[in-house]
Target: S-formylglutathione hydrolase
Amino acid sequence: MNELTIRSQSRCFEGMVMYCSHFSQCCNINMNFAVYVPPQAKTQKVPILYYLSGLTCTDENFTIKAGAQRYAAQHGILLVIPDTSPRNTGIPGEDDVYNLGSGAGFYLNAIVEPWSQYYQMYSYVTQELPDVIQANFSVDATRQSIFGHSMGGHGALICALKNPEKYRSVSAFAPICAPIQDEWGQNAFSAYLGTDFALWQEYDATELVKKTQLSYPILIDQGMDDTYYIQKQLLPEVFADACQSVGQSLNLRFHAGYDHSYFMIATFIEDHFIHHAKALLS
Ligand SMILES: N[C@@H](CCC(=O)N[C@@H](CS)C(=O)NCC(=O)O)C(=O)O
Model:
């Protein structure tokens, strides 16, 4: 059940970048993910940091662009980078647009046919994938954290907020912060979740933080020249207001001149590792 196919592996900072695939029970199809196994895993069980990518990404974008392996090796943290959706499901139109279907799973469990047959990304990243990682790598499953970018930054926030005990820390680069209030979110939620507004709220970070607070601080970095920030797809201020109203600790940092790209992520990735290492290694 947890059998992995290793598509490729390359040595990196004395550890290993591995591209893997496996049959996912909950998504009902083969899924891809990338892993960075730090050198420390040769002799001990290491903590795990999940990274959820944004719209249009595969397991490759972060792996090749963020420069994360240097810091994962330094801190002895195993990185897991799932794909952003099931692929090649045969659902009509699945590859037609960048913000729905392939590359746009939104880390939720779809209830509307035909998406619901495959698009169970919330269960996949919070339950099935952690089981697969535990069964196949030298990890300490009691020590795991999560971060992500854009759609994946939102994914990280909801996974943490819905599971306050499961993760030790959370952070995000330019996350979508209030999907039920922006166009990307409304488009995806109506396709995947239908018209049940109460269910929409169950997958919205701003709504969730009003109900459940985390005992640890949330770190968010946002570039001020980010087109999607300017177009109000991300709405970090709305999330910040909700955090403030309920006393959730949030370190929201704005950076002049930075856009939505992986250049921004590469610039601030070290700080995110410091943030997570503090929680994972204490
Ligand atoms: N409008 C863009 C949206 C895609 C986009 O900016 N995706 C971000 C995440 S929301 C990303 O990480 N892209 C891949 C990359 O930069 O490597 C498109 O049509 O491609």
